[in-house]
Each structure stands twice: as C-alpha cells, then as structure tokens.
Amino acid sequence: MSEQDKVHALYQELVTHFLEPLLNGGVAQCTRALPPAALDHFTLARPVETTVEGSILEALARLSSELTPVELVEMAERGLMATLMAVHNLFWLTDPELDRAFARGAREPVREWVFELIQAIPMPRTRSEALGRHIILDRALALEREDTVVKNWAYTYRFYGRPPPANVVALPTVRFVRQDKTQRGMLELALEGTPELDLETPLRALIARSPITQILRHDLSPDLRFGQATLAVLSDDGLRSGVAQELVKRGSGQVAQPFGHALRVLSAEDPSPQHLFVAIALIADMQILEVFDERAGHRPRSEPAVGDEELFAAVLPALFQVRGPLQGLVMVNPSDARELRERAAKLAEQAGADAVAMALTLLERAQPLKESA
Predict the structure, then answer these.
(1) How many whole angstroms separate alpha carbon 227 and alpha carbon 294?
(2) Residue 131 has what pLDDT?
(3) CA 235, 87, 66: angle at the middle one, nearest 5?
C-alpha cells in the first residue's frame, strides 16, 4: 500500500467511525492520531460510501439550521477539517491506555500536532464556514466516554471507553461478575483528566478559532473578548440573531457579566464604529428577545462605579435615548413597543444613570454597517 493510500484509509476511518456518528448521536471511535501533514489530503478527499457523505452533509445542515437557516455546510472545507482533526487528536490524548511505558512518548508529539492544526484553521469567511466548525466543536464538547469496571470473585478489570471482552463478562452468575459503568464527559477529561499533559491550553486555543463556539460557550472563555473574527461573524444579521436567541435561553444571569465586560474592553480599544455597532447590536438583540421570554428578569448586580452587568443592562435604555440610525435596533411591532419601553425604564433604574450615560456614549460612537457602506 502506498503512502497516499494509507493516508486515504485514515481519512475513511475518521469520517466513517468518528465524524458521522459524532454528528448523528452514535458511538464515535477515535482512529490513530492524525498528522497535520494529512490536512491537504483530508480537505480534498470524499468518503467512499455515498451514504456516509450524505448522512454527514445532512447532519451538518440540520444542526446548523438550529441557529440560522443555511442550505449547505461543506464538509470538504479546510477550517472544518482542521477543526475535526484537532478535536480528534485532543480527545485521543485523553485515553488512559497511552499512559504506558511504550506509548507515553507519543503523547507530546500529538499534542504539538493539535497546535499545528489549530494554526491551520483560517478565519471563517462565510456563514457556512463559521457554522461548520462550530457544529464540530459543539458536538465534540458534548461527547461522553463510558468506563466500565468489571469485578468477579478473583479479579477487577477496568476498561476506559471500550466494551469489556466477552470472555471477561461470561458466566456472570457462576463467576460472580458485576459491572459498574460510569460516564465521563470529554470536556471534563480534557480539562481535568490529564493534568500532567495540559490539554486545557490547546482546547481553549481551539475554541478561540470558532467565533460562534467562543460566544455560546463563554463559560470556557474566562476573559471573553469581541475579537475581529467574532465581530466579522456577528456582522451576519442571521447568525447574530440565532446566537442571541441561543444565549437568551440561558437568561441574563449567565450572560450579563461576560458580555458587559467584553463591551467595556472593546470600547477601550478604540474599535471602528462598525465593529462597536455589531457588539452593541448583539447585546440589544439579547435584551429585546428577553423582554418576550418568560425566563427574563435578571437584576444587574450593583458594583462600584459602573459594573459589567450594569453596563450590559444599560444598553437597552440608552437605545431609546440615542438619536440616529441606531434607533432601528429597537424597532418592533407597535403591540410590543410598550412592553419594550417598560423594560427599558426598569433597566435604567436598576443600572443607574451613570451606566446609562456610559452606554449612551458608546452608542454615539457606533455606526451601522449599512451606513458605513
């Protein structure tokens, strides 16, 4: 078998046994570690079985459409494939079977491969590219590994992420066989399961390459920032609306502090008026949606000067005071306008006059994308 044939066989294992079940709720199985040198081949390759390719493409479109409408998410896209390979290698490294004398030496080189693959992930240029890598990461972060401890009258066996062999669990009554199964999330395994290897750093670096994931999983980004890639993705009105709806499901209590902090940091960096507008538009979308969501009602925490939560809450009342095109962010049906104004008045009281004045200053610096064109 030629070297190219070996690489293609590895690709077939990846898409058939890891990617397809990952997207469709099956049992994802890691293959061998994936070298960055295979990325070019993997990006151009296609599954041998058309049913596998169809299943993957259908799942990518279906899962992406839960955030915003999209007709097609390409599987053969460099950013998606590099994300997939990095995710695979990252979780391959959580296997306790690698912590053995003759396997331990392979871990550090594969960890370096993860960083190389992360560096190969370009900034998303389209809605499809942004959604594709997010779906891969989102599904991977939800993976669980089933570990089994098998005890009989004489021995105890441990199987990590692998089913016990038939001979080990045979004749359960005669041999007093007992099985205890536990589920461990892949996120837990990466952050806590291998402290001597430090998988947290590459995991956070990988999430940073997926703007949608970074926003929706802000709990994994202790110091959330509105970077250039994030603001570019949020410039897509459909994506921004879908992201805002997903965040609203978690309530203001979960998003007020990190997004208020991100807005504060962005404003101090002297961003372009258009980038500032995109960040404000996301917060405005969340606050408007919350007015009509029964889970709303978070009161911003009072802090010295203007706290992050107070700045977040002050955006909506400031929008009713600003003059110019930004007023379009609070244009709603006349039947909803009264309720929106009542919420804005309540937030203004809770946030305080200083916070509203600060938010108004930021709004006056912002400029919609259409206006800039």
Answers:
(1) 31
(2) 97
(3) 45
Q: Which helix (H) or strand (E) holds 145?
A: strand 144-151
Q: How far apart are alpha carbons 110 and 290 in whole angstroms?
A: 44
For 51-109, give the DSSP string. HHHHHHHHHHHHHHHTTS--S---SS-HHHHHHHHHHHHHHHTT-GGGSSTTTGGGHHH
pLDDT of residue 125: 92
3-state SS, residue 160: strand
For the chain, give every domain's residue range: 3-141+192-202, 144-188, 223-372
Please report the pLDDT score of residue 372 as a whole number: 39
* Burial class of residue 105 in the structure, from the number of CB atoms within 10 Å of its CB (0-12 exposed, 13-18 middle, 19+ buried): exposed
Contact 203, 118 (CB under 8 A): no
Structural tokens at position 5: 């044939």
Reduced to 3 states (helix: H, G, I; strand: E, B; else coil), residue 29 is coil
DSSP state of 37: G
Mean pLDDT by 10 residues, the chain (373 residues): 87 96 94 95 93 96 93 92 97 81 77 97 94 96 87 83 82 80 84 79 93 93 87 93 90 84 91 92 90 62 75 91 82 79 89 92 86 40
C-alpha–C-alpha distance, residues 343 and 347, integer Å: 6
Please give the Cα distance from 123 to 109 (Å, whole number).
25
The rounded distance, in Å, linking the Cα atoms of 294 and 286 is 13
Cα distances (angstroms) measured from residue 121 to each of 111, 130, 206, 208, 320: 16, 11, 9, 10, 41
Number of alpha carbons in the 13 Å side-chain half-sphere of residue 128: 12
Provide the pLDDT for residue 333.
76
Q: Angle, to 10 degrees, between the axis of helix 308-319 and the axis of helix 252-268?
A: 90
Cβ neighbours of residue 324 closer than 8 Å, sequence gap 6 or more? none
